[in-house]
Amino acid sequence: MNSLTACERLDIIRHKNRPTVRDYIPMLFDDFFEMHGDRLYGDDGAIIGGVGYFKGKPVTVIATVKGRNLEENKASNFGMPHPEGYRKALRLAKQAEKFHRPVICLVDTAGAFCGIEAEERGQGEAIAKNLMEFSSLKTPVITIILGEGGSGGALALAVCDELAMLENALYSVISPRGCASILWKDASREREACEVLKITAEDLSRLGICDGIIEEAPGGAHNDPELTAEYISEYISGAIKRKCEKGLDELLNERYTKFRKVGEFSEN
Amino acid sequence: MLEDLFSVVKMRFNGDKKENSNEGGKPSIPKGLMFKCPRCSNVVFMEEFEKTGKVCPNCNYHARLSSRERLDITVDKGSFVEYDPLMTSKNPIDFEGYPEKQADLRAKTGLKDAVITGEATIRGEKVVIGIMDSRYMMASMGSVVGEKITRAFEQAEKKKLPVIMFTCSGGARMQEGTVSLMQMAKTCAAAKRYSDSGGLYITVMTDPTTGGVTASFASVGDIIIAEPKVLIGFAGRRVIEGTIKQRLPDDFQSAEFLLQHGFIDMIVERSKIRRTIAHLIKLHKG
Ligand SMILES: [Zn+2]
């Protein structure tokens, strides 16, 4: 695995040929059936969800979608979900629970969309509800951050039993750009902020947040999407095996503890 | 884009600044003696203003309260026993200037971080209560806020007590990086366990409740109350205005806006919150 700085990784995940979930889903899953809608308001193109086979076993797949071109990006709102996207995700997760399928979440988003309609339809409530419900979902949940893990918009699909990141993926509470504009009143210093925030897979492993780092093809996933998909597939195999052999109580207690233990404070 | 959870909340009313300005050579209002309402410019004696819980008698403007002030007008006198009074944050991502900033704020406010939690009674009803304080880094949620809120739910579950959370926040605490983001998941998981145990959770949203706190424990109460006209939202106003390139209406993200869109149960004036909470607790005892 390479040892790049956070902003070198930022360049890699912003590469125009960076594979998206639309590339990965056919490589990872067989007979994928996409499901639509939250049954409340609409169908959000920024989140794709459905069922398929992973190495012969049924799984539920939920993913944020970035487009590969302008047209796709318009349909998927550049990968930034509205509340109905998070509600669709929860509906499909509940369905997975009912039919005892593991949930695989693939995350690549700048964050939840910030707009009038998103507020009107309760963006905060939709995310909060997912955090709450995923914390006790009675089936294994594996989340992989493929590129950008943008704040609460990513976390809404990342309350899971195992969180893995592609080696160049970044997972942050705020965009480096946003951080720079708050810290130095200068958004152009995002590269500095990128280092300050400690958002690489290595940083987050050290902080006890990331459970696994998945290798990418040499130089980045864009150089060989198939090879990268193989690495992802291997990881998912192992994670499903590790989680499916646990009893439900053990699984849920460990999920609770995974988040419960994060935080650094002193008491005297 | 990603700025969503760290929404910078602009003070809607620049009250404190105007209070001391000496406009047009008129005699200035001595600081501390009088209160000039930032919304309607009405001037009242500070003593009277404080007696009403810092609500303007003319236009019903609800000024922000410190956590101590909130505690005083909410719980029975002398009933509060604080949890984890000494808990302070470390510097998980070695963020430059963070320890100094905190030391400075601790000295200024007497607070250890942005929330106080504990047990108290409200009109005789025993509760676990949490009160956030916007003077401390805009009540952003880092390790301490996350841990104290989580422990409050865990204690309440053990002791079978209702939980009352007075929320206000600018969002997640950027200075703690992704660790602060995890506090959202941690508090929601604790709220879920508490809820599954049958506990009653009432949120009181106060000015401003935004970002990562809106997108976590603040929004999952069984009952959500808000004070009149407070700011409640996920994304910061300026972030949205930047995205859509137009000015938002004044009442956007107000308590009234949320009530209309179905995200809160009721708007309750400050003077009636204590009574309302006590009634609701009684009602849930059956
Ligand atoms: Zn007034």
Output the CATH topology of the largest domain in chain B.
2-enoyl-CoA Hydratase, Chain A, domain 1
> What structural class do the secondary elements of chain B suggest?
alpha/beta
Text of the CATH class of chain A: Alpha Beta
Written as H for each helix and E for each strand, in order along the chain, the element string of chain A is HHEEEHHEHHEHEEHHHEHHE
List descriptors.
heterodimer; A: 268 residues; alpha/beta; 2-enoyl-CoA Hydratase, Chain A, domain 1; 8-stranded mixed beta sheet; globular; B: 286 residues; 7-stranded mixed beta sheet; two-stranded antiparallel sheet; 36% helix
Would you mind describing this structure in some detail?
By secondary structure, chain A is of the alpha/beta class. Chain A has helices at 6-13, 21-28, 70-75, 83-98, 116-120, 123-134, 151-155, 176-183, 190-196, 201-206, 225-244, 248-260, and strands spanning 30-35, 47-54, 57-64, 103-109, 141-150, 162-166, 170-172, 212-214, 265-266. Chain A has one domain (6-258): 2-enoyl-CoA Hydratase, Chain A, domain 1 (Alpha-Beta Complex). Chain A has twelve helices and nine strands. In chain A, strand 5 (141-150), helix 7 and strand 6 form a beta-alpha-beta unit. In chain A, helix 4 packs parallel to helix 6 and helix 8 packs across helix 9 (190-196). Chain A is globular. Chain B starts with 14 loop residues before the first helix and ends with a helix. Chain B contains ten helices and ten strands. Chain B has helices spanning 15-20, 46-51, 67-74, 98-109, 143-159, 177-196, 211-214, 237-244, 255-260, 270-285; strands at residues 34-36, 43-45, 81-83, 88-89, 115-122, 125-132, 163-169, 201-209, 223-226, 266-267. At the A-B interface, helix 5, helix 6, helix 7, helix 8 and helix 12 of A face strand 4, helix 5, helix 6, helix 7 and helix 8 of B. Strand 9 (265-266) of chain A pairs antiparallel with strand 4 of chain B, so a sheet runs across the interface. The complex binds zinc ion (ZN). Residues 37, 39-40, 42, 56, 58-59, 61 of chain B line the site of zinc ion.
